């Protein structure tokens, strides 16, 4: 607690990001609320600007081999933006967070990418059987990935670009077409 009081001024003055990683312990005899707690007292909880709960919710397998993990992040505290948001994403070992996997998921969510059974397709063209194959296809076809990305961003912001019959590119909207 005293160390954090001394550190906060220097951290703020030097515009430094400090990340503390902690573990979860179980409180014994808790009837109401969450029985989980973090170690080290309340000082970190108080001084932190942002607190995240990061959990692995599943494994990504290719055959029998685990090649990544599905991850969920919950924002427990945020002094700089709206708190209590959640995000789920895929982390592939050796690659990191998969942008193309997100494009497939968000494309389906906003009806930009069609999902029929295990098949994914975009504008009538099949891009893969299974999410992993669709992800690999988008990785190999960056122009299609860019187009889906622009339409997903437009749909997320409520912009009419995402809902056009013939998809417009961002340059067309800026040019006034």
TrEMBL record:
Sequence ranges assigned to domain RecA family profile in this UniProt record: 29-102
GO molecular function: ATP binding; ATP-dependent activity, acting on DNA; single-stranded DNA binding
Domain of life per record: Bacteria
GO biological process: DNA recombination; DNA repair
Assigned keywords, A-Z: ATP-binding, DNA recombination, DNA-binding, Nucleotide-binding
InterPro entries xref list: DNA_recomb/repair_RecA, DNA_recomb/repair_RecA_CS, P-loop_NTPase, RecA-like_C, RecA-like_N, RecA_C_sf, RecA_monomer-monomer_interface
Pfam families, per database record: RecA_C, RecA_N
One GO term describing the cellular component: cytosol
Similarity comment: Belongs to the RecA family.
Protein name: Protein RecA
Organism of this sequence: Acidithiobacillus sulfuriphilus
């Amino acid at each position: 607690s005293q160390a954090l009081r001394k550190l906060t001024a220097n951290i703020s003055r030097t515009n430094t990001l400090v990340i503390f990683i902690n573990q979860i312990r179980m409180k014994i005899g808790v009837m109401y609320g969450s029985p989980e707690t973090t170690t080290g007292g309340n000082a970190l909880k108080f001084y932190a600007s942002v607190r995240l709960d990061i959990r692995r919710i599943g494994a990504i397998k290719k055959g029998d081999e685990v090649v990544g993990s599905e991850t969920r992040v919950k924002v427990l505290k945020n002094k700089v933006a709206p708190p209590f948001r959640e995000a789920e994403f895929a982390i592939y070992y050796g690659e990191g967070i998969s942008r193309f996997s997100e494009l497939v998921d968000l494309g389906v969510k906003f009806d930009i990418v069609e999902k029929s059974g295990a098949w994914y397709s975009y504008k009538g063209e099949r891009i893969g059987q299974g999410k992993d194959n669709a992800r690999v296809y988008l990785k190999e076809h960056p122009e299609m990935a860019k187009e889906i990305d622009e339409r997903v961003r437009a749909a997320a912001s409520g912009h009419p670009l995402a809902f056009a019959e013939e998809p417009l590119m961002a340059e067309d909207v800026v040019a006034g077409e």
